[in-house]
Amino acid sequence: MSKRTKFGLLGKDISYSFSRKYFSEKFEKLGLADLTYSNLDIPEIEEFPFLLYHREDEYQGINVTIPYKESVMRYLHEIDEDAKKIGAVNTIKVTNDNKLFGYNTDFYGFQKSIEPFIKNHHKKALILGTGGASKAIAYALKKMNIAYKFVSRSKAEDKFTYEMLNQQIFEEYTVIINSTPVGTFPNVNESPNIPFEFITEKHLLFDLIYNPEQSKFLKEGLKRGAAIKNGYEMLELQAEKSWEIWNS
Fold this sequence. Notes:
Rossmann fold, elongated, 29% helix, Shikimate_DH-bd_N, aromatic amino acid biosynthesis, 8 helices, alpha/beta, 2 domains, six-stranded mixed β-sheet
């Protein structure tokens, strides 16, 4: 069997990709000139098997991003327990017998990144958005014994809608996590529609967005004395965890 030299990021409209730059620079630093990392940009998840057809033995690992973290799961041979519980995969390892194993390293990256900022009064969190990344965040919060509620545009028994958010909720929920893409470059003047006037110095705002470095969401929190953190370190940590999985 030829040596596996390829890695990639599976997603849609991912020219901005953090992963390609990160891993290409990593391979260069480690002197691994034979390894490549490319964007596997496909319009529909149904193209995924054809993308790999006759090429499985070239790939060692694949990262998965929006919008395929959930839909890719049907194409995998095995899924790690954490990823199963989360219901989303962001890392695929291709085994020597060309089986696809799915993992989730997002929850690990998020947990390690937010933990140093958690204070005793941070007992409850609001998760803005309900996509694949939000599931990993919920899983990490559960592990940290922080209660959480999703905030969504549509009504549901177990969720808040944006319209429901008020001062009382903000006094109770002092960690607010943006898992939506709202505010990502180039739309830097946008932010999730929350009542920022109820943010205080007791709040911690975490944004999965890292471009711009300070999103409007984070700037509004900073203005009111809240602790803030963007998603760059989370991405680095989840990427390193992926690398560990691919090489184990």
